[in-house]
Amino acid sequence: MINLNSTITLIGTRLSKVGNEFIFYGPTPECENCKLKNTCNNLEIGRRYRIVSVRNEQVHACALHDTGVYAVDVIPAPTIALVKSEMAFNGSKIVYEPPDCDEVDCPEYDRCHPEGLKIGDKYTIVEVLKEESLKCMKGYSMRAVVLK
Length: 148
Known about the structure:
The chain contains two helices and eight strands, in the order ββαββββαββ. By secondary structure, it is mainly beta.
């Protein structure tokens, strides 16, 4: 079933499974002369996407994927992130700002600075997760949420 809010793109046949998520890093030099590059490279660089359907009627040749690529429908994927507790309400809209933190050894650093979110972009908190004992090395009060 095709999602009306989805985007059609191309992805390697081995990776093209419904539910798989990926971050689009942009075109590679091998893409430069490809006749399908506009379909492959039509996503926003740095964003996380989820495959919602695979259109595997035809395998297309690809210089990067040895078994070719399929057309797939993707949507922006929800992302788990830590936000300040006072912002963590279901349904609220926020402008994403990671905490001012350089503690890269912190076990929560990756969730405070998740890949695929862009600073200054607007997101909706679709769920506040019920996690306990988040230990912030800077002492911030943080909550885990799902952003979309």
